[in-house]
Amino acid sequence: MRPIDSLVNALSAARVVTDPDVIDSYARDRTFVEPGKPLGVVLATSRDDVVTTMRWASEHRVPVVPRGSGTGLAGGAVAGDGSIVLSLAKMTAIREISPADEIAVVEPGVITADLDRAAREHGLMYAPDPSSYEISTIGGNLATNAGGLRCVKYGVTRDSALGLEVVLADGRVLDTGRRTMKGVTGYDLTGLFVGSEGTLGVITSATVRLRRAPAVPPATFAAEFGSLRDAGAAVAAIMAAGCQPSLMELLDRTTLQAIDDWRNIGLESTTQAMLIGQSDASDGQAVAERMQRICEDNGASFVAVSSTPAEAEELIGIRRLAYGAKERLGACLVEDVCVPRSALPAMISAIEEAAARHDVLIGTVAHAGDGNLHPVFIFDHGTVEPPANVWAAADEVFTTALRLGGTLTGEHGVGTLKRRWLALEAGPVASEVQRGIKAVFDPLDILNPGKAI
Amino acid sequence: MRPIDSLVNALSAARVVTDPDVIDSYARDRTFVEPGKPLGVVLATSRDDVVTTMRWASEHRVPVVPRGSGTGLAGGAVAGDGSIVLSLAKMTAIREISPADEIAVVEPGVITADLDRAAREHGLMYAPDPSSYEISTIGGNLATNAGGLRCVKYGVTRDSALGLEVVLADGRVLDTGRRTMKGVTGYDLTGLFVGSEGTLGVITSATVRLRRAPAVPPATFAAEFGSLRDAGAAVAAIMAAGCQPSLMELLDRTTLQAIDDWRNIGLESTTQAMLIGQSDASDGQAVAERMQRICEDNGASFVAVSSTPAEAEELIGIRRLAYGAKERLGACLVEDVCVPRSALPAMISAIEEAAARHDVLIGTVAHAGDGNLHPVFIFDHGTVEPPANVWAAADEVFTTALRLGGTLTGEHGVGTLKRRWLALEAGPVASEVQRGIKAVFDPLDILNPGKAI
Q: How far apart are CA B17 and CA A307, in angstroms?
């Protein structure tokens, strides 16, 4: 009898995958990180399945790697030898949407965009919108504290999480938070689980905040600049003017060139950067025109403002092509540093210098309003692991971000990829405290070991 | 030699109060809770003073009760026998305001409104505004995760806290969070300290988020209703219409009567509730007029909309009189439940029923947009402790709030006053986990013991 047989017996064969090829497909995320050989995959359909799995894992001291749809970019859901992959992707019920209270109660496998669409039927929206929102799950978003395009106005996943149901390492069920907008009883356990990358417990239900969907379609602008410096100055001026954009994305020349090569957007040879912004305020069209003027005042060579939703979609569509265009060029290490907004131009310069010094192609997209940059390091297709010069350039980017008062990761998480830099940011006291917290929740270290902290 | 003499030697006599009368004034907050007899009061002027105090306290196993200006309403800063009161009120430096990054770095003793005023010199604001903001400190706001009037739009103190410097129980210094708007390295320690009522560490510096101050003065309305039910319906309709008020306060008849008796606001005999709301949007005047129409559609007998900042101040001024007016009537137990917004009418009815059943005068003010109610239980001046019927009525209010899906405290904290009800909300697993976290940070249980959890 294999060790996993007792788990199969406890759950039923239909819930446990033991075919090695299928297991392998559940052991990966969107990074190049090679998984080990897990014992099996649990396809949980209920909280009880999760409880059974965790009790079994505690008893047998087997590591458990929780996952949603595996869209992570930091290796947080990559599973190691001898572990159990615990997939929450089949727990897809939207249990409740309350328009009066502006909340929803959802299972962790709900696709982010599905929740947003369900909310919009009631005139509401689910604000957090990671770029992967058509394929990522709410559970994964919570585990990584995912950001997105709209978070410049509406905040990150944490800001929409009100309460959680969590299965602890030993199978106990913990309820955190509440259904109310405010509440201060006890410590903030909800916040502690959000972004903890499955290392403290397995989220089996979440009460999230919805917001009123804007009454009018958002108004959008796109501005081209002859220098990244000018584009950075425009971002600062737009924010300082109190425009409160609901989206503010910056694309560099390498990214624009890749998009143009693929889909011909008529890129001018002098364009070094593009800024795409949106306002979803009730006077959004006026705000978009104000942002247009600020771009022109800061040296934009061309600014288009949408006058119809179709035109707006076309402008945003350029941003949506960014990753696909770069994936055509090679394998991609998608990075994720965040700096104080004023350090955006310095950070972009540092990325360009690192690219030149280490002879690496880097294309950068930034959630510019938040100072959150995604430099994408491009290397040869078919290469399993990024070559040494990519890591050298990445190291320079990370240490520069920290030197500028920033952080190693704005929204993707630490996972396995960032752990070797973690001590530079956290320091010894924070690391010790975090290990202490981990031990409270997971004394046997079976929950996603080797990730996050 | 008294035990405290070694602390006096370590800090200097100027920093340690040992006069019993002065100590007593530092051992209380704004509740009626009677303190014990602390050994002394440390008037910290720097992080080093706090480190010295905590090292001494750990060595001698002396409880430490941190405090700001003592405006708390839950007994969280009330000090017991043999403890040291650690006042942060003299650490009042605003170390940095960065308009470009929209952040400030402040010491814990900074008065909340002083930070807001300093920010406004740069076109920014500090959004959290507890009613006590002219006398409360940022450190106290962080320790209780204070709310306020504007949090219906801008969130609570947690939503403005980016990073903290904390002295741990053993004197180690921990830095949490960051200067960036987003960041997901490690567990959310910042969130864990916010609202922890000084039981996990002593905050000695905070990096907080500022926001652009609205360009135009807010537009304000006040509406009178013949029933609380109509007022509740108007709140729901205003929120559902996406008006995004920056303030939405509800006052009941008892409160209005107390204000009218004091300052004569011309209260009509038929008025049972007043709603005061504000919009600080760029099209705020139009939004206020829209809110006016919604109130009229929901049965308001009279609605005034301000057309000048002076008129707006006059309307808000009515709200500001609420506590003062009730304090004239007797000693006050200021309570603080929060329910899902749709349960606001049911909660108000339950408060009225509890008042009638137990023959207690209760006047209620609500941050109605958040479902956060402050029923104020009024009893005889000079009574040291609320009489049994007040506690019986309060018990009914608390248990009803929980039954309606709400919480024991929306923004004041648990302190000592709410601890006897805490298990009803938290449940055994959450309580156990919270005790585990407490032990990680404070294994000797010397930090504000007997509070919060």
A: 68
Q: Which positions in chain A touch B416 (Cβ < 8 Å)? A: none
Size of chain A, expressed as the number of residues it contains: 453
CB atoms within 10 A of CB B46: 14
Beta bridge partners of B274: B224, B251
Distance from CA of B263 to the nearest CA of A (A): 32
What is the three-class DSSP state of A36? Answer: coil
**How does pLDDT run across B28-39, given as a tens digit for each residue?**
999 999 999 999
Task: Retrieve residue B110's tokens.
Answer: 């900074």
List chain A residues with CB under 8 Å of B150.
Answer: none
Mean pLDDT of B174-182: 95
Q: Is the pLDDT of residue B1 over 80?
A: no
| pLDDT of B177 strictly over 90 | yes
Tens digits of residue pLDDT in B240-279:
999 999 999 999 999 999 999 999 999 999 999 999 999 9
Taking alpha carbons only, the member of A121, A141, A162, A2 closest to residue A72 is A141
Give the three-state DSSP class for B419: helix
Minimal Cβ distance to B179: which of A144, A184, A340: A340
Is A434 an 8 Å CB contact of chain B? yes
Instruction: Identify all chain A residues contacting B185, using CB atoms and an 8 Å cutoff.
Output: 407-409, 414, 418, 422, 425-426
Whether the model pTM is above 0.95: yes
Give the contacts of B448 (CB within 8 A, at least 6 positions apart): B63, B64, B65, B66, B76, B197, B198, B199
Does A1 score more than 80 pLDDT? no
- Above 90 in pLDDT, residue A305? yes
Q: Interface pTM (ipTM) of the complex?
A: 0.96
Q: Which residues of A touch B406 (CB under 8 A)?
A: 178-180, 183
DSSP B426-447: HHHHHHHHHHHHHHHH-TT--B
Q: What count of other Cβ atoms lies within 10 Å of the Cβ of residue B262? A: 14
User: Residues B190-215: pLDDT tens digits?
Assistant: 999 999 999 999 999 999 999 999 98
Contact A189 B434 (CB under 8 A): yes
Closest CA relative to residue B331, chosen from B278, B268, B382, B257: B382
Q: Which residue of A has its CA nearest to B410?
A: A183
SS3 (DSSP) at B364: strand
- Taking only the tens place, the pLDDT of each residue in A181-214 is 999 999 999 999 999 999 999 999 999 999 999 9
Tell the residue number behind the tokens 């030697």, with chain if given: B9
Do you know the residue count of chain B?
A: 453
